[in-house]
## 1
Amino acid sequence: MTTNVQPLLSVRDLRIHFPTQDGSQTVKAVDGIGFDVMPGETFGVIGESGSGKTTLGRALVGLLPPTAGSIVQGGVDPRTLGGAALRAHRRDYQIVFQDPHAALNPRQTVLTSVCEPLEIAGGLSRAERELRGLDALSRVGIAPEYAQRYPHMLSGGQKQRINIARALTVRPRLIVCDEVVAALDVSIRGDVLNLFADLQREFGLTYVFITHDLSVVSHVSDRIAVTYLGRLMELGPTLDVGERPLHPYTEALMSADPVPLPSHLRTHKRIVLQGEIPSPIDPPSGCRFRTRCPAAQPRCAAEAPDWRELRPAHWVACHFSTADGPPRPNVHPAA
Amino acid sequence: MLEVRDLSISFRLAGGGRVNITRKLNFRIGAGERLGVVGESGCGKTVTGLSVLRLLPEAHVQIDGQVLFEGQDLLKLPETGMRAIRGRDIAMIFQEPMTALDPVFTVGEQIAEAYRTHFPVSRAEARERAIEGLAKVGIPLPARRVDEYPHQFSGGMRQRVMIAMALVCEPRLLIADEPTTALDVTVQAQITDLLRELSERAGTALMFITHDLGVVAEVCTRMVTMYAGEVVEDAPVDDALVRPRHPYTSGLLRSLPRLTPHRGVLPSIRGRVPSPSEMPGGCRFRARCDHAQAACGDEQVATTVSPGHVARCCRAAELDLPGVVA
């Protein structure tokens, strides 16, 4: 990646906190995350539920305000904009959600839904809007005769295509894809993922691809960021993160992914983590992963690890990782 | 041990019509065997699992065929006989453990209740069984947690509680319907490892209903592929993965992203599953199949293509279909 290209997204020490219902405590959904997304790339974000990935995605398109830190989009901090300038700016940063059914209004025709962002943007006549809407539908492979139908008459895959078309009508620069194929059956997932790839080539789109599905994120992304409890554990080129991870969490996550191979070809050793992700209300001190880490040391509780670049463009937050990989698991004496 | 013969399930509609959900299913599960039932949403796999335990509302559902459990047809048993089998000989766990547990009773009370339904023991003894059960599924401090309520457990721990409850009577068959789908991948690994270990140790047979072929590969010994309410393939797992004999199974396997080079074009299966009300005659997969011929319009017969490997496709013997190893 050349240094003279400006990042499209620049996230610095981002924190997004929510008060609990009774207001007495704070949920630290995102708690100190920083990265850049370059134009034209697919930036993958993986993490388990409670890692803060959905909150992060919403913040990236301005649906949630940062509690602290900043998100600079195309060189502009949207907090410095207001009114019409902000609305025009926000069109460039779109999001497609997980549930294709919930994201469409059941009382609106497909075309009305697809044209709605243009109506909000203003400036186009109804006929122009519909033309642009039909064009977007054809780009995602939805035939014009579907335009006047209602969501319940369509399959999940078709609905997700319509959600994509709706995001495309305003010609965005970046689309955050939040678990966009999670609700789709395996046999049509490929279609929708191929569509994202085609649209990227055609429009030079940038994607932030958020998912818990390791095989999906590994397939579509140029780089992968691994989140855990509101922080990044690791960030690097996809193949490097997948095959030679640096963080013990990434290593365990990759090894937990069920592999559809016959027994004689299944060679990987599974690292089974103990327990589950702790509460983001009261995250562990120091390294957040230490309570489940097979290689945790006293230092991990005392200080949070630095964000270190151990291989070119491959970053990790672990005291003990080296360029060769994560630290070896502790050997426990027999209990 | 379990043999399902020509099982057809249809729902009665309010207007008087009927919708066929499954048609003439045949499969069997041997003692200690772990059978994966795979297929996409709407293929009838959940309904099949429920019908084995007769958990479908009988007023609205018509079930034909036989469900033979150790030679006895469960569909002909009176409800009292069925009740003696449910939870005792055949137990079931579901996808969402929170909705399957009662929030106002402790987990210990719920597990003990399952035990006392089938065994005339004192409360104290049933409680001991509950503690043992929690320990067996890897819940730390079982003697303390036995008195806690479901909301005090995390998602993965709740699923362990469900498994403990299902196994407390030491059933011979456990039906698990997407038991790990709601869980994170690191927790899923804990639960699938646990199910496999428990099955191996106690010889409990498993009917594992899932859409995740990776999970089937890791847990099961045999797999049945369902499509549009029919069993289209039945084979040992490794066999089905390497050499699928039905184009649908092959298509499902090929659409897994990990089999395509990074950022390459992903294969998918064109078209969509026909709806139950407009099911085509002949092969139900025909309209989506790359290998369809005129003969596919005829009724397809399940044929044994190699030892223990059955496919419902008239071209199964001649086609060389790709599996997970290209």
Note: The two ends of chain B are 35 Å apart (CA to CA).
## 2
Amino acid sequence: MLTILDRIDLTIPRGEFVAILGPSGSGKSTLLGLMAGLDRPTEGEVRLDGRAIHTLSEDQLALLRRREIGFVFQSFELLDNFTARENVLLPLELVDTKNPRARADELLAEVGLGERGHHYPAQLSGGERQRVALARAFAARPPLLLADEPTGNLDSATGERVLAILERLRAREATTLVLVTHDPALAARADRRIHLRDGRIDRIELGAKGRV
Amino acid sequence: MTLAAYLRAVGRESRHSRGRLAFFVACLAVGVAAVVAVAGLAASLDGKVRAEARPLLAADLAIEGRRPPTPELESGIAALGAGVQRADLRELVTVVALPPSPDGAPGKSQLVDLKVVSPGYPFYGQLVTEPPGELGALLADGGLLVAPELASRLGLATGSRLRIGRRELTVRGRIVTEPDRVGSEFGFAVAPRVIMSVADFASAELEGIGSRITYRTLLRLPEGAGREDAKQAKETLVALLPREGGQRVETWAEAQPALRNGLERVERFLGLVALLSLLAGGIGVAQTVRAWLTARLDAVAVLKCLGMRPREVLALYLGQSVGLGLVGSLVGVLAGIGLLFLLPTVLGNLVPRELVDPWQPWAFLRGLGLGVGIATLFSLPPLLSVLSVPPARVLRRTVEPLPPSRLRRLAFGLLLFAGIWGTAAVQARSWWLGLQFAVGALVAAGLLTLAARLVARVVSRWPARRFWLRYGLAALGRPGSATLSGVVALGLGVMVVLGMWLIERGLAKELRADLPETAPSVFLVDVQPAQWPGVEKTLQVQGASHIDSVPVVMARLTAIDGEGARERADEAKGEGRGNGGRRWALTREQRLTYLSELPRGNTLTAGAWWQDPAVSEVSVEADFARDLGVELGSKLSFDIQGVPFELTVTSLRTVDWATFGINFFLVVEPGVLDRAPQQRVAAARLAPGSEDRVQDALAAEFPNVTMLRIREILEKVIAVLDRISLGVRFLGGFTALAGVAILAGAVSSTASRRGREVALLKTLGLTRGTVLGVFAVEHALVGLVAGVLGTGGAALLAWGVLNRGMEVDWSPEPMPLLVGIGASLLLSVVAGLGASLRALGRRPIEMLREA
């Protein structure tokens, strides 16, 4: 058996922005997967709000993700047969939000795509797609947002714009953000930077703002 | 590139596509199996008939007709030489009865198919009886042989007495097999068989004027005579046949031309139904190839960069298609052999097991040829796109192949049409029928495609509130989605199966419907004019109502306006439209009646009823007049027992046949035929359940009178209809199956995208059950659309055939339509979920790995 992560002991307080850095194969994605309950540790435990999630069944995890966790991916991962609005509606409908359409339109307007709701992903640029993905991630007001290289497929100007929106939404909703990245500039905005190497925590740096 | 290198490259190129290409094989195999089953079954039956040609005729030559051989023919038979043996047979439908009981009550009676034989019969084959014995001895001195079903119905045993005509004969045994009773294996026998000798038949006095007797003279040529001798003897005799027709000569060398013609007709019809499933499979092939190539575009670009010429690349992929076509066809042939083993079980007594020999190499070759042909034909259009893949794709993924030009698309369309026409012509053995089928199939598929596109377009814009519904609707509306071809193929299958079922049900219902209040329930034939008052009295005593009777004069049409009817019939040879009806109308034994009043249910459409004193008038039924090619003023020449008559057409009529009254194509004015040899035909309505009693009473007093029950005749028609329908539905099921294979293939070709979506949906918090539900809704919607379109098509088909073609008043019932839609929905869900099983198992963690 291959050991990917080893002796990771990490607590992330509510509302914190944590960046996870490390070279390819250092275990960044695996760590993110564990936090999201997408994967299970062979040893040890994962707790969310004090609740052990590594013991939950697949279906329980699914229900947990609906309410508690939002995702942003490097390659956007929008449903390509859904319009932008329908993509944002999906999580809202899963948690039975009242008046989901209004909320979806509001979010789309917030990411600057108020007029593009009826477009399919294929009709949008990369940056626009990622903004739809952000709207979708924040739609159900999850307390935890997991982002996997969210600007990895975007040029720097577009990436900057996406990040600005991400930070604004995060600040307003007081969402905990765990962000995996290669990009030191991006990581510099985090409260804490966790460097992984060969599946272990190599070092932890505090953010520029000095908060812990 | 050397051939070996080419083949190696083909092998390597196909290496990682094998799973997907399994659908290619499946789509094709389904259709090939249906084609092989039909061709194999037909070849098998044909082979049996040929192998048993002599026993089936019981002779080397047979002369058959509605009258005994003429003196000219007799001299011809004599001229064939001294070594020729001869036997004379008669066949007729009549009524037999048990002797009356001691208290004088009539014995039980039964309609039978009587065969009268003279010594020598059968020259070939064996008439097997129980108890066994020599035929001459069994029939000597008033002996009879009866079919087992007659024995059990009347409680006959060896030694029982049975009345036939004026005679009372003794049952000497039961008939186990009769070599020359053709067609009875398929359940088309009219009534149970009774065999008696010529000597007894004469004294039974059944040979009245106009009795519907078939005369057969069997000839056995001297030992060692072969096919050529039989053909030569036939030529000698044919030259001596009476000019007005009514008699024909058949040799064993022709091996039952009428039976084999019938079989071939059924084969051609079912062969086209089977072809439809192969064509549906072809749509699947095209779809699979397209999906497969989309995934190979990068590889194609690389091959081109490495210096492979476009046509070498094309050859590489075409080679794989042909190879796969071969594999699919071989699988189909194996499945077809399996079907040939299974068919006798599946189709019940439609096909007796002993007549089926599953080893039919020609049928296998036909399946292989058509399978590979269709596979190549349908994969060519998508394959040609590899020609236009730009090698620059290696550097920039987004460089798409140029769409084919308008000219090229037109060329593909023509090629496809020619191919379908060609294969249909092979199956139908006629270019004309093949063309009709090709056009019909393309129109049906085209309409289904249009309708499916329209529905997809409309529903995909429908603002569904629930996301799972929206997801399913979106899948339908996805442009260029392979789902569409699946919908079309499945819809086509539903249309064929359900359409045939609806037509059969509609007809059977119409035939089973209570006869109109005033309609007769039985016909009496072979009534001698002198017997009629007595018969009528018996009917009245038995409580029959609506008794009606008219005279019938048997005649032969010799000429129309001086031109020989025979020559006209010869002109109508060949397959063309209406020729069959024309030949039949001209050469049939014409039954004339004479009436003073226009009968009920008849309407004049032209001319006037008995107004012209100058000529002998005849009124002709309008459709029959068209078949004969006559109009007002035409002069019809008839031969009535050797006496010529000329009649002038002075009116045309239409007849409402659904009244089941006695109606005639040809009605003559009174006074012309009064003295011609004639008999009467009668109709009456009997109280339900009294038919047996009436038949018993009639048989006791008028043994030559035959009573035919309309109900029984209609049931026979329904039984035949049912068999044909079963065959069509069975084969149509293969089209639906091909549709299912295509749908599964379409779903499977999107497996990687689906897997990614499953992972994403799970990441977003959908449980496994919900994801399964979302997919099920999607496939159910697909099945629903296919079902609704196919069912609509079937209803339209049934309406057209029944209301328009057969003038049956039919309106769709909801139940069969719902069954059609439900079945389609279920098939689609099972196929769709089955094909996405692997995708459904995808785990959300995969979202964090590279796509």
Note: The helical segments of chain A are 28-36, 58-68, 84-94, 100-110, 126-139, 156-173, 184-187.
